[in-house]
């Protein structure tokens, strides 16, 4: 079994954390940097992140998050957000691609032009769904990387997103998607079953 396979099987939703365990800010930053290698439509990287390590703020957030203990007891809460105006960063992204030698300026200019002509015409809900989809890939990559380093995680969609957006003064183009508790398990996670692939897969051979 490969290391990745092992990590995928070991990663579980942990809900009981050691409140005295601390993960350095630099470690979390490194995990986020690696997670940002996740794929995204047109490489627009529409995820936005808030890292909450302040214990008083975690306690406040717990009230917004349906009183889930892991919000307060984990080492940090990683809020994953989506940006429906991520296309506005396209020039910065593709010019950086040119600087780092990945594409020519001609290709970058063409990509920029296409993006700026197409994305603003897309329905708001379509852009929101696309951002959420890409942010989900980022979140999953983050959790697997965290597990590889011996940390535990759990995602939480059950929180008051309106109150969260107000508390953290999110701009109108940014919306909350999920919270990830990050830390060290104090109790093992429950095992969970998975349906056989025959129940969700169709092969055309």
From TrEMBL:
It comes from the Bacteria. Pfam families: Nitroreductase. Keywords: Oxidoreductase. InterPro entries: Nitroreductase, Nitroreductase-like. Coiled coil: none annotated. One of its GO terms (molecular function) is oxidoreductase activity. Residues 9-184 form the Nitroreductase domain. Belongs to the nitroreductase family. PANTHER family: NAD(P)H NITROREDUCTASE YDGI-RELATED, NAD(P)H NITROREDUCTASE YODC-RELATED. This is Nitroreductase family protein. It comes from Bacillus yapensis.
């Amino acid at each position: 079994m490969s290391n990745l396979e092992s990590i995928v099987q070991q990663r579980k939703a942990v809900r009981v954390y050691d409140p005295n365990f601390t993960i350095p800010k630099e470690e979390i930053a490194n995990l986020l940097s690696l997670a940002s290698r996740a794929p995204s439509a047109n490489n627009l990287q529409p995820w936005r992140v808030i890292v909450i390590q302040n214990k008083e703020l975690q306690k406040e957030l717990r009230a917004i998050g349906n009183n889930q203990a892991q919000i307060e007891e984990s080492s940090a809460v990683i809020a994953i957000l989506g940006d429906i105006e991520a296309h506005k960063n396209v020039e910065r992204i593709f010019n950086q691609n040119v600087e780092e030698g990945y594409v020519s300026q001609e290709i970058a200019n063409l990509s920029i032009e296409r993006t700026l002509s197409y994305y603003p015409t897309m329905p708001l809900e379509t852009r929101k769904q696309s951002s959420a989809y890409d942010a989900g890939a980022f979140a999953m990559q983050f959790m697997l990387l965290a597990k590889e380093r011996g940390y535990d995680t759990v995602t939480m969609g059950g929180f008051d997103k309106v109150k969260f957006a107000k508390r953290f003064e999110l701009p109108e183009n940014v919306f909350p998607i999920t919270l990830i508790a990050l830390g060290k398990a104090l109790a093992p996670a429950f095992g969970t079953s998975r349906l056989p692939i025959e129940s969700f897969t169709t092969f055309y051979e």
